[in-house]
Amino acid sequence: MSGTRASNDRPPGAGGVKRGRLQQEVAATGSRVTVVLGAQWGDEGKGKVVDLLATDADIVSRCQGGNNAGHTVVVDGKEYDFHLLPSGIINTKAVSFIGNGVVIHLPGLFEEAEKNEKKGLKDWEKRLIISDRAHLGKVPMGLWEWPFLAPSTQSSGDPGGPTWSHMLLSLLFLRGLKKMKSLTHCPLSSPIHTPAAATVFDFHQAVDGLQEVQRQAQEGKNIGTTKKGIGPTYSSKAARTGLRICDLLSDFDEFSARFKNLAHQHQSMFPTLEIDVEGQLKRLKGFAERIRPMVRDGVYFMYEALHGPPKKILVEGANAALLDIDFGTYPFVTSSNCTVGGVCTGLGIPPQNIGDVYGVVKAYTTRVGIGAFPTEQINEIGDLLQNRGHEWGVTTGRKRRCGWLDLMILRYAHMVNGFTALALTKLDILDVLSEIKVGISYKLNGKRIPYFPANQEILQKVEVEYETLPGWKADTTGARKWDDLPPQAQSYVRFVENHLGVAIKWVGVGKSRESMIQLF
After folding, report:
1. What residues bind substrate, as annotated (predicted)?
2. Binding residue ranges for IMP
């Protein structure tokens, strides 16, 4: 029969299922994951919300980013700092999963775990699963740790990037390196190399720093990256030259050949790089045996988790909406999707398995590095927020720029992520203020605009319209339920909630788990 297919000639699975049954099967999507995402420029307190939700979770996952993220969790008075490990690793009853969307710096992973072990973290290796499809960053560095190449954290006007004097000195130094045969022959190497740097060299991290130097020299500004090699690693992934966990655990000779090719590619682009290839491969081989018991097929692991016995699965987003590679304040962004779409691509799960999406919002706004910041307060208010909020980065130690809460940013983040509810953190930092301003809209050339500008030059020019609210001038750190908050503090929370049209589920008034007030 030409041009048609007989009923008995259907491919397997194409017939014999009634539409009603098919719809029922499609509806049975399995468990749904709960997602926690940053709604500003990061540092909102995502780790605290994750820690709160992880107390009864079965699986806590990371889906993107690398050790450029920093989450602080306080449990029983102890501060734990996490960069690659999911914050939920503290829960001894939960499995922690690092998905394929994460870029993994293996030395950093083990160093982070060892530091937290000293604070009380136990048996983490038995509870950590790593996707075989996750990409590798390369082993420890040296170059950017040198003091005169390191970015200044005290640069006025640009706390996120190197000063011009640092950059000029760096460029002169790097030119000189081209004439040297080896970094180890440099007379400065002995007193300033770290123990790790004497053995191995992390070229992705070094390239990250070199690219910042180039940007400063060519454009007069840099992005202000964390120098953790995240961008170069994602670049290798996009260029299809990257190396994954599954490659490391397979034929090591083949892995070594590809590693050498990748190293040579970077050396051809950056002639100043001196890479101890054999030393790095030796370390990577050791890491391979250590992580082998933790590695699983990530897609199958998540499928089993979603479609087996019901489980509570939590996804911990790194970075934040305004740092997203597509939706953030480009180019001053990270190299991954930090919005809800990154959950699907970074874990290998379909959209219908996304359940609640919680946005975490600081009660004011902060930003690390350069870029437009409409509500920034370069005055005594900014200084007060910075000092009271201890606003410096967990990963870099850089000071954060501070300003009033910006509802335009939050509306935009909600458009992209579709938040189910919000967590409003660090409300207690505002305790001492007699009045508090909130940015409610933008004007451009005298006209109100309903959207968040993509172009940084335009965003720099917007005029913020503020609403001024009364402060409460009272200590809220002891509040443990809604009624404990002063009326003006309650009004502030409701003002934010009403303007965004999104319910606020938690209000944070301190560092501990107990300081998160749950409203419903």
Report:
1. 43, 394-400
2. 43-46, 68-71, 226, 240, 319, 334, 398
Asked if residues 236 and 242 have their Cβ atoms less than 8 Å apart, the reply is yes
Three-state DSSP class for residue 469: strand
Q: What share of the chain is helix, strand, coil (3-state, %, to 5)?
A: 40, 20, 40
Q: Which residue among 51, 58, 71, 414 is the active-site one?
A: 71
Catalytic residue among 43, 51, 202, 247: 43
Binding residues for Mg(2+): 43, 70
Active site residue 237: yes
Catalytic-role residue among 135, 237, 414, 505: 237
The reported pTM is: 0.81
Per-residue pLDDT of the chain (520 residues; tens, 9 = 90+): 444 444 444 444 444 444 455 445 444 678 999 999 999 999 999 988 998 999 999 999 999 998 877 778 888 888 898 999 998 899 999 999 999 999 999 999 999 999 999 999 999 999 999 999 999 985 444 333 333 333 333 333 333 333 333 333 344 334 444 443 333 333 323 222 222 222 222 545 555 555 555 555 555 555 555 556 788 888 889 989 999 999 999 999 999 999 999 888 888 887 877 888 999 999 999 999 999 999 999 999 999 999 999 999 999 999 999 999 999 999 999 999 999 999 999 999 999 999 999 999 999 999 998 899 999 999 999 999 999 999 987 666 789 999 999 999 999 999 999 999 999 999 999 999 999 999 999 999 999 999 999 999 999 999 999 999 999 999 999 999 999 999 999 999 999 999 999 999 999 999 888 999 999 9
Pairing of strands 103-104, 128-131: unpaired
Strands 435-444 and 516-518, by their bridges, are unpaired
Distance of alpha carbon 176 from its chain centroid, rounded?
35
Strand locations in 42-146 (E): 59-62, 71-75, 78-82, 95-98, 103-104, 128-131, 135-136
CA distances in angstroms from 271 to 170, 174, 193, 317, 427, listed in the order given? 15, 9, 20, 36, 50
43 is catalytic: yes
| Helix or strand run (H / E) with residue 175 | helix 164-177
Residues marked as binding for substrate? 43, 394-400
Residue ranges at the known binding site: 42-48, 68-72, 226, 240, 319, 334, 394-400, 426-428, 508-511
426: left (phi over 0), alpha (psi -120 to 50) or beta: left
Neighbours of 517 (CB within 10 A): 23
